[in-house]
Amino acid sequence: MKKNLRVLLLAAGSGLLAPAGTALAQTPTATRPGLSNQLAAVDNMPLSLQQAVDYAIKNKSSLLATRLGEQTAKARVGEIRSAGLPQVNVAANLADNFKLQKSLVDFGAFAGGNSATTLTPSDIAAAQSGQTVNLGTVTLPAEPVPPQALAFGLRHAGNTSASVSQLLFDGSYLIGLKAAKVYEQLAQKQTQQAEIDVVEQVSKAYYSTLVARERLQLLSRNVQRLDTILYQTNQTFKAGFAEKLDVQRLQVQRNNLVVEQQKAQRLTELSVALLKFQMGLPQDQTVQLTDSLSAAVVDAGSLRQRLGVANLATGAGVTGLGGVPNAPAPTATNTPEQNRQDQQTALSGARTGQLAAAFNYNNRIEFSTLETQQALAGLDLANRRAGAYPRLVATAAYGFTGSANNRRDLFAFRGPDSRAANGFPNQNWFGFGNVGLSLNIPVFDGFRRKYLVQQARIAQQTIERGFETLRQSIDLQDAQSRTTLINALDVLDNQRANLDLADEVARVSRIKFKEGVGSNIEVVTAETSLREAQTNYYSALYDVLVAKVDRDKATGELYNQAKK
């Protein structure tokens, strides 16, 4: 059963046992809590290939995580845009200056020599009311007074303020807005890339299950046919017209076939589980595939014409073994040298010049993603250069500050009209406000910006070099997928012809044995050859379907087909 395993394991390509299968009817199980209403209401979920792809795109956990990256990109755009909006802040603080800082003060300097100015409470009140006050002087002692340590302020202090700033000009901000939008596009393309991978995995898994289901049904028919032959042979043995050895040979053949059928049944169930995994469907949800293998089988002739290989070497019929078409007349525009180069290119599996001219690299999401990365690199370079531009910000602030000797007095909030018992003003909270412009002009940063620009320029050049590498990689994938598909079609044609021959040989052998002109060994050998031909045919059929998916992905058509 190595070939049976091959049919399943070939599906495990892109991710964790990648594609696998489809479901035969499964025993319904209890619906898992938390499923959607649609799944909860459907015990046996009908599933076509298109439905499987649509469900996977909407529900695959890896895609949901990738879409969170899109939301992060959108949030990043809002973050950058917010830097250009007004910035409003409100601040408040309280302080307990349990040990006030002191400073030395030379009072002799304030007095101007050996005299000092006198200041009375009445003088202070008159000055606050706007009256002119004539201050008197007194004579100081002959010895000068040394500088004295004084503590300015009171023990408890507090302030509250509101500030507003508005960015007026910043070259980096303008470039950042453009880069944020491009970054959002990059996140969307990365999501599309992940969706293409999911479409590929689900398609291969679906085809794998179709093939496994069809092969299982064929094995069931083989068992039924062999049971009929075994019964007839046993009856012939009981009548004395056959040997016991003939019956035993058929029993051995049947036992092997039943074991093979059981293995195929388990592999089919496993392929269904793998299909559910690729779709993001709970394992306890039963499914029933609605597409048939006959609908999935491609027309080899038309596919060869699309590939440009319906020529003398391959044929153009559906089987590939029919009539050979006439050689096409060479076009007048091609020179003999051009024809020779095209023939060599075709033999090597690459694309000819005419096919290469029709190939659009932008159909590949990888190429489009790299273009977006190049745009981001260009904006990053411009941002580094914009670091030399000035930055202008408008600012405004308004607030209050207060102080007191004790905490309770601090929260008294006394205004300008407050007076103490002795008549002195005792206001403890004072307002302040300001408006202004802040201009920052970079002059010299130790050549830091120069080296940042060099790094950004090198990163941009690296991406530009990546375009040529990506083109070569796409060309190789295109040539490889084309050659693989052509080879798979040729193998399928050959295996289909072998299956028809093996089926005819088995039919004739059974008729000869039934009529008594053939041997039991001939029937056993023919049945063994038929099963081998069947296994080879379905393996080749799966190879064609997978090669077709790989070809569509290489040409960038897989995603568009899934969206139809």
Automatic annotation (TrEMBL):
Keyword flag Ligase: no
Signal peptide residues on this chain, from the entry's feature table: 1-25
Subcellular location per the Swiss-Prot or TrEMBL entry: Cell outer membrane
One Gene Ontology term of the molecular function aspect: porin activity
Main localization of the protein described in the UniProt heading: membrane
Any one Gene Ontology cellular component term annotated for this protein: efflux pump complex
Disordered, as annotated region: 320-347
Bias (Low complexity): 324-336
Family: Belongs to the outer membrane factor (OMF) (TC 1.B.17) family.
Name of the protein in its database record: Outer membrane protein TolC
Organism field: Hymenobacter mucosus
Lineage: Bacteria, Pseudomonadati, Bacteroidota, Cytophagia, Cytophagales
